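Narrative of accomplishments. A recurring question from our advisory board has been how the design workflow behaves on a single, concrete structure rather than in aggregate. To address it, we present the structure tokens for one chain from the evaluation set, followed by the sequence designed for it. No filtering or post-editing was applied between the two.
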């Protein structure tokens, strides 16, 4: 089963990379851009046919390795 994981910084956590992207976009003439936040996207296949079990495994992966749950949120999507 194909799993997509979206990871983003929690509100209130400083995002210097997002700010750098925002400044660069503004310098390129995209002056209406604001509040840029940078995140991660991970796509993987799990050899599992049960969507409940696939989501459980992906969530466990996020909790143990893929996301820093102190400062990041994550969302698991199944295809």
């Amino acid at each position: 089963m194909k799993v997509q994981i979206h990871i983003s910084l929690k509100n209130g956590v400083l995002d210097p990379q997002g700010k750098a992207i925002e400044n660069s976009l503004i310098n390129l003439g995209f002056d209406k851009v604001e509040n840029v936040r940078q995140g991660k996207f991970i796509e993987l296949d799990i050899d599992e046919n049960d969507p409940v079990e696939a989501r459980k495994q992906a969530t466990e992966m996020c909790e143990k390795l893929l996301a820093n749950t102190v400062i990041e949120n994550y969302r698991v999507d199944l295809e």
